[in-house]
Amino acid sequence: MATLGDIGVAAAFNILSAFIFFVAFAILRLQPFNDRVYFPKWYLKGLRADPTTPGAFVRKFVNLDYRSYLRFWNWMPDALRMPEPELIDHAGLDSAVYLRIYLIGLKIFVPIAFLAWGVLVPVNWTNSTLEGTKLSNVTSSNIDKLSISNVPLGSQRFWGHIVVAYAFTFWACFVLLKEYEKVASMRLQFVASERRRPDQFTVLVRNVPPDPDESVSELVEHFFLVNHPDHYLTHQVVYNANKIAKLVKKKKSLQNWLVFYKNKYSRNSSKRPFMKTGFLGLWGDKVDAIDHHESEVKKLSEEISAERERIGNNSKSIVPAGFVSFKTRWGAAVCAQTQQCRNPTIWLTEWAPEPRDVYWENLAIPYVSLTVRRLIMGVAFFFLTFFFMIPIAFVQSLASIDGLEKAAPFLKKVVEGGFFKSFVQGFLPGIVLKIFLIFLPTILMIMAKFEGFTSLSSLERRAASRYYIFNFVNVFLGSIIAGSAFEQLDSFMNQSANEIPKTIGVAIPIKATFFITYIMVDGWAGIAGEILMLKPLIIYHLKNFFLVKTEKDREEAMDPGSLGFNTGEPRIQLYFLLGFVYATVTPIILPFIIIFFGLAYVVFRHQIINVYNQEYESAAAFWPDVHGRIVTALVISQVLLIGLLSTKSFAQSTPFLIALPVLTIWFYLFCKGRYEPAFVKYPLQEAMMKDTLERAREPNINLKGYLQSAYIHPVFKASEDNEDEEENDEKWENESVIVPTKRQSRRSTPAPSRVSGASSPSLPDVQEHPQS
Amino acid sequence: MATLGDIGVAAAFNILSAFIFFVAFAILRLQPFNDRVYFPKWYLKGLRADPTTPGAFVRKFVNLDYRSYLRFWNWMPDALRMPEPELIDHAGLDSAVYLRIYLIGLKIFVPIAFLAWGVLVPVNWTNSTLEGTKLSNVTSSNIDKLSISNVPLGSQRFWGHIVVAYAFTFWACFVLLKEYEKVASMRLQFVASERRRPDQFTVLVRNVPPDPDESVSELVEHFFLVNHPDHYLTHQVVYNANKIAKLVKKKKSLQNWLVFYKNKYSRNSSKRPFMKTGFLGLWGDKVDAIDHHESEVKKLSEEISAERERIGNNSKSIVPAGFVSFKTRWGAAVCAQTQQCRNPTIWLTEWAPEPRDVYWENLAIPYVSLTVRRLIMGVAFFFLTFFFMIPIAFVQSLASIDGLEKAAPFLKKVVEGGFFKSFVQGFLPGIVLKIFLIFLPTILMIMAKFEGFTSLSSLERRAASRYYIFNFVNVFLGSIIAGSAFEQLDSFMNQSANEIPKTIGVAIPIKATFFITYIMVDGWAGIAGEILMLKPLIIYHLKNFFLVKTEKDREEAMDPGSLGFNTGEPRIQLYFLLGFVYATVTPIILPFIIIFFGLAYVVFRHQIINVYNQEYESAAAFWPDVHGRIVTALVISQVLLIGLLSTKSFAQSTPFLIALPVLTIWFYLFCKGRYEPAFVKYPLQEAMMKDTLERAREPNINLKGYLQSAYIHPVFKASEDNEDEEENDEKWENESVIVPTKRQSRRSTPAPSRVSGASSPSLPDVQEHPQS
């Protein structure tokens, strides 16, 4: 076991690294040539331009004003100053609500910490169990004196812990309830107060059934004209643009190289740059790099336009999905919430995500394939989660030096050195875990993509919940059981599954110090490192040097990044879990967690205001997940407390404690019924209100023109220059239409579909190749 | 353990009682004076009248035609003869689909039985494990020779069981999939082909928020006029008629007594009947019974009409719920499937149940109260389930005579008698369980009512799923573990929760004989007793003698009963569970189960055709539950097989078997996504199709008149004679309405609400007391 001294060393080390990161950040951000790295959000919003101080040339790169260095902590109050409504306006509701997760952490744990230190620490401290057992072979430290381990078996003092556990639960549920209410009303207000957005009128329809007589476009149109006659406005088909997207990406990269060589040539115009055409430029024919790239780019451009034409002409490149727009929000709300067809696996409708939120690759997956994919990914995730534990367990057990010494006595000399020992025990376990976890989010995102979610936000939510489960099994349980398994091998062997709460419960107090160091590494130094943005800084300067020629290039060289819900949120959740579990057991951990929440809140508020660029806006659709996981952590902590107390010869507490998880789960169900609909449905009353208001304000709005090309695959959007499709829209909205058809049985009436002519797919470049 | 001989005695006994029941039924049903007991369905349909053979007086009561007795088995082919479409027409879709559950049992288990007897029985039989162990203290019988117990530990023969388990699972899933598909399409066809029904146009709205300025009726009208302007047609408020319903019930009972005394007087007119007014007529003043009852009935009639008036005048007797009708099925489908209001706990809409399916008492329960009630009932059900086990376990353990002898050697003399022993072991355990279970459904129905479901069908579904869980824990697990606990006390003590599959798995083969006798008692003799209808027979004749004066009285004396989904379905599910669990373990049980399914199918088909009167028609809404429970049984059987095999020194099979529950659960989820929406939603396409058809066929239909009084509490319906509310409906449907309001802010425009005047609550008797 680590002693207080070990923790002190680790704390000093982590505080020092956090401090170094902050100082480095404070200096770097003041340099004008880093401006685009540390304030990209403002550039993207067009509110900040490159510093054009007229002074000396050096001033353009280095800040020589010593006064600004004196105020280098100022970013913290600056970050806190912006009020929430302005923040929502500036960075979107998602970001603002994301920050509230940290605030909840503070709201829950600050009072809990006071209560725990006021009640539990004295209760634990005034025993002498551990002093008695110190002589035996159980290792303990003075931190354990503050923990529940110090209370003797069967002591009546455990009633204190039970009462406090109730208080914690009620307080946490109270905060969660208030917060859910607040976020739900923020979401509704945000959606209501918002300006018109295409996704308010649009529904994504998937699994359009194949039809021998009609194209997808005609089929969609006819179906919705028949079944939503008063509300259907227009629709857009989805093209399978995966190939063209690949080509565009390749062209982009080649253009970058072209710019690179041109820059090189312009700097040193004596020598034309040459390159080899083979793999990585290592072998092959030697050619003039600029000419080669120019011809390659030209070839690709031709390929792209050929592919574009092919997509336009070939009806097979239209996937069986589409975006259907309605005349009113009411109509869209109705269509999104109802079942369209007898067969519930075709004509699936759901709210269309924001245009930038759409994950285009997944729109075409048929229903049966989706369910099979879910099964496969479920099984794959199970294996990923449980077989990943083996290496972690091994490294973790090494990190427990006492165990290591016992296992390999010949290492004793090496590790016995005081500082080295503290270093290994205080720092290494956290780092090991961290490295393991760096590659995980990418894998989980790929898995979520394979499962067929249709929006980036849902992909991230899925990846986040998987990441949370992974964290729980591997970081939390893995650290507790595996580490302890090395120490308590005898007592762990041959134990059965229902003993798990007991087994973990017993191990929890022992692993408190490990988690304290983990919090310091990941939660203190890690968060401080976040603000330094080392990777974007380096990449920006490399790009700036090699690739940037115009202002637009510089714009593209910025990499503001985004919030990363799929990695960030499960990470916070781990702190909630630790906080709840240790609140009753080893309350000394709470201040460390509170510092994490406070620090992270400031840092991420700064990042959101100045750096991150939102990828999408889901209007806080992730909140039910966040709420659910915090409640899960609460329930886990309660079950573990039951397990722990039943090993303390205090099993008579179980009937008193079993009510806690029951009530908490009921609380979860209550909140789910009460608030979750605000996040998945769109009340008709709201829709009707907005429609009525809008009709009164702008009676002549050309809605069809507005919606016609809202959902176009980004690769087509880039070349969206000839917008000639906005014709005869005005009369459209109020005329009643006769549904034309092309079915075999009516082939005798071959009049071309007037309606489908008007609303045929609006891919700009293929307008001259009508499909029918 | 029971031997083959014991089972033979039990089988003979049960077959004999079943035979006696059938013969008694065959004789009784031919007697004309029992006609209304055994063919009430036909009377209710008006297709059969009292036999009026002109012959001798005795012929009216006793059938003297000897030829009809010769054909007394004929009811069986008769029952099978009616084709399914005619059955649906005759008795409703619920009944027809309910019968399919028995058919599924046959479809699943007949092939499985052949496979099991062809493969597993030889595999098990050709071992000699049990002969070797017979000398030790393990008791076994020759039935066990056919079961998995006879295969030696670690034998490679278990691969046979694993392969067969896969075959069983795939076959069962295949049958279930086909059946789900069939039932879903039957339901949709039923709904589509049906004539117009009020519930197709109507939505039940609950939790109407209180409003200081407007009555519930006005509030509902305004809300739906605003939010469904093109579709809203009319609405009906719900009166709190609990008190009046009680009064009507009391009056009915008094009238019965009045008739009783009048009959008595008319038979013996020399003496006026007297009665005492005190408790149960035991003491108090002696009064003339006829006069007394006449005055009481009159008093009650006055009270009822006063109460009726009070309800009409008092706005507080209107509960915050209502039935809202729409002009089209499309409008109703939209409203039922969408969220209406920001706050998802008010303005809750759902499909209105059929008028006769509504459970009126529960319409007014507010949302928060509902969630609390669910919690309370959840906890109560937990206690009911787990504390009920104690008495069962005790009686069960007595029924195992071998165990009893060991426990109380002094009883040896008493129970050693051959036939007595067989009787006790073969018959008693089943009877004990049966008595325990008779009172349960009533309790579960009361619990479901307390939970606040709004239709009889959902009440029954809820009670059924609770009953199933109860059966599983107490009948299935309770019998297996408790019975075994007496025999294997040593091995059972101190075992942990994850050992449960093993523990049960081990006990399963041992309890095979118990379940065989249970099947014979409950499934053979019990089903045969069902057809005899002893209770309705006796009650009918009592009523007929004492109360019946007119033809209408005789009509009311009939008690056809109904299918009783809440008790019948869980009972069938127990057989599915036993079948799946024992199919791989002790296949000898399968023929007994198949006989049950066959017999029950014939008996219930007869009952449905001739006896039961449908209480409601839910269009087979219960099918997802049935399907889910059969799949649950399948998963349980797979888990138990894993447990059993891991105790057979064959734990290497676990990886091969673990895929089975995973695939089965996936199959369940697939079916849920694929077919369940057909049972909970109403596709807009269907609605639109029916609307269009209907508009073409009957363009001038007075829909409002049709819907105006569809949802009236049955106590008001009785006196529905003055139907004067059908006025100015014609012009209603096509005029556009301006929404009137009575809010404070507009008090300066006091014109009475024209619309609410027209559609004010349509309680017939209070028409002359308008509310506004």
TrEMBL record, chains A, B:
Intracellular or extracellular location(s): Membrane
Compositional bias ranges of the Polar residues kind: 747-762
Pfam families per UniProt: PHM7_cyt (PF14703), RSN1_7TM (PF02714), RSN1_TM (PF13967)
Keywords noted in UniProt: Calcium, Ion channel, Ion transport, Membrane, Transmembrane, Transmembrane helix, Transport
GO cellular component: plasma membrane
One GO molecular-function entry: calcium-activated cation channel activity
Occurrences of domain CSC1/OSCA1-like 7TM region (ranges): 373-645
Family listed: Belongs to the CSC1 (TC 1.A.17) family.
Protein name: Putative membrane protein C2G11.09
Originating species: Morella rubra
